[in-house]
Structure formats: structure tokens, C-alpha cells
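Morning. Coffee machine broken again, so started the prediction first thing and wrote up yesterday's gels while waiting. Chain of 226 residues, entered below exactly as on the submission form.
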Amino acid sequence: MKKYLILLASGTGSRFGTDCPKQFIKIGDKMIIEYTIAASDCELFDEIILVVSAPYIDLMKSVVASRGYKAPVRVVEGGSCRKESCEKGVAAINDVEGYVVIHNGVQPFITKEDYRDSLEALEKYPVVTSGVPCVYTILETDGNGILKRIAPRVQCFGDLGPECFRLSVLRKVFEKGRADSEFTNLTGIVMKYKLGDIYVVKGNPKNIKITYPEDVIYAERIINGK
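Came back before lunch.
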């Protein structure tokens, strides 16, 4: 089966606090999204589908043409939210079945090994996500600050992604969850509608998501090897 990577880069970056979406902020001589594409460009994928908002389509097509990535990279227009952008990325795939990995464009420190671990797990499970073991004990409250449950820490992970699906299951996710506003991540929809088991792969703690300006400082240190 073919393996597809969907890179999401159509967000507005409202929490970042700048006019330019954070995926297009430069660190050194490259945009964050360029680092993410470069980290993802490997023989594991038959195609990379880059989902961006309309104002940045021409820019990213130019970047893709100039960089000469090993894997074919296709640029498609995203939607108004993460779930809609995921669906538009999947709509660009014509196959009946396949493996689909969905990764955030502002997580530039993903590794080939991270992708390989997820794809290998996808051979056994219909849905796979990645997380890091929690270093803090998780306290679950009732919403009013009253402690209701202390979750066993050895069973708890911090969600990192990527989210990985067999294509047929992913299409069911959109059928069930298109009008569901409860979840922004697709694995939450899988759980809610009982669409299959979700296996959690132990992820790479360096695979951070750049969300706030201070995250850029940390990203610069990783890129510069400090």
C-alpha cells in the first residue's frame, strides 16, 4: 500500500501573536515549514501533501520547485480549521486504501525513525498516534477544581503526534465527525465513535510544536546544536 504524509501548514498562528503565521517565520535562512518538509523528506513516503492557506500557495509551490525534494510534494489549499484542512488533504488522495500520516507543519524536529515507528505500528493497528510519557502525575478534576481521579502516571502520555491512519478508517472519521466540534484532533473522533483501537507509540521529546515566540528560541538552539 502507498504511504502518504499530510503536512498541515494552513493555520493562522493566533496564539503566536504575529501577523505572519508561525510556520512561515524564518529561523536562520529557512522558514519553519521548510525545516519540517526537509525532516520528512524520505523514502518512507510515496507522496507528501502540503496543506496551506490560499495566500501562501504560490510561495510554497515556489519553495517546493526550488528545493528539489526526494519525495514528490503536492501543495493543496487548506480549510478554515485543522479538521477541515485534514479532510482536504485526504481528498487529494485517490486510492481506496493506504497509510496516511498527518503531521503539524510547526513540528520541525520529527525524525525518520519517528515516522518509521508509527508506520510499523499501523501495520497492526488501524490508528496510531505518538506521545511522550508524562513526567508529572495527572490530576483529573470535575471542571470546578475538585480532584476526581489520579491517573496512573505509567499509563499517561503527552500527545505529540503525528496521527496515523489506514485510509479507509480515516474516511470514516470524516463521515462521523464532520459536524462534530468537540475535537480538533482526529484520534478523539475515533475514540468517541469507536472506530477502532488507537495504539500509542512512544515519541521523541524533541518533536516539539512551535506555539509561542519563546518556542522559537528553543528551536534555534536545537537547529544550531546548542
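DSSP finds seven helices and twelve strands in the chain. Going to sketch it on the whiteboard this afternoon.
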